Amino acid sequence: MNRLLKGWFPTISHPLVISAPMLATSNGTLAAEVSKAGGLGTIPGGSIFTSDSANLQTLDQELLTARKILNLNDKLETPLPVGIGFLTFHHSTTTHFPSTIPPLLIKHKPLVIWLFAPDPSSRPHQQLIPLLHKTGKFWGLKVFVQVGSVAAAREAMQDGADGIIAQGIDAGGHQWAQGAGVVSLVPEVREMLRQEFDGKEVALFAAGGIVDGSGLLAMLVLGADGVVMGTRFIAADESSAPGHAREVILGAEDGGISTVKSHLHDSVKGVTHWPKFYDGRAIAGPSIRDEQAGLPLEENIAKYKETEAAGDNSRNVYWSGTAVGLVKNVMPAGRIVEQVRNQAIERMAELKASL
């Protein structure tokens, strides 16, 4: 598999670390620095694909930034060694994506498209994945699909995915409302791939609760070909996360207790566009504690709006995975990649010596 991944992504080093395309956190600079360090950086592309979409305008600029940092400004025909993450539940996925996204991809030539959260009633990935492969066939574009169950992984394979990102409920941010932790999800997805798609070239990546080399090594043992990290990169120098968000992440401990999965993280902000079978994991703040104490949702929303209007961040939603207690410092994104990779190699050597 290392040879396959190196063929797909010539600039990577093993074991592979991928940075997640987190809205309001990931950007072109962070992605480029991750890729420069031998990882695979990704940039969020949003969920609205109309021609006047602010998401796509921002994405275009971030891709230009990444190309500049990677010294590829004068090499426009050279593929850009970063990925783009798209959320696919919005109705414009079927009405506008096929016309607005291909020109953007041809312009920038990213190596990976990452799809997540399709509307199950329309199953858009059946159409999108062949379209993406056709668009990027001249530079080897690959398509990864983020899943939270074995059934979703099977569907992604049937739709033509090149890579599966198995996201456990340990992860921060949006995810399947019902699912398994990454420790059981990854090996079960791997076994399904062996049994049902034997001979198919597919990469499997683990996501959720991974912030260091020990986590990376554990996922490799469980059958993953690499890992995705999100929470750790919130505390990267290049992150777009505001200072108060980094402070919350760095100050958190005991992630299984200090974070919680809930629809409230969206509801309290008035976010209603996520399908109900997705929720999210974030720091358990005042809104969660008030809900647990019996506060009606309407009053909880009013409190959120009141503090937000006053410039008070205490009720903000801070997306975070269960490994947040292991994040203790801010450092450059490239250094994070190198540190995690080196830790995994060191832990592997220590384990071999102890057996």
Automatic annotation (TrEMBL):
GO molecular function: nitronate monooxygenase activity
InterPro entries reported in the protein's UniProt record: Aldolase_TIM, NMO
Keyword Flavoprotein: yes
Record key words, sorted: Flavoprotein, FMN, Oxidoreductase
Pfam families: NMO (PF03060)
Protein name: Uncharacterized protein
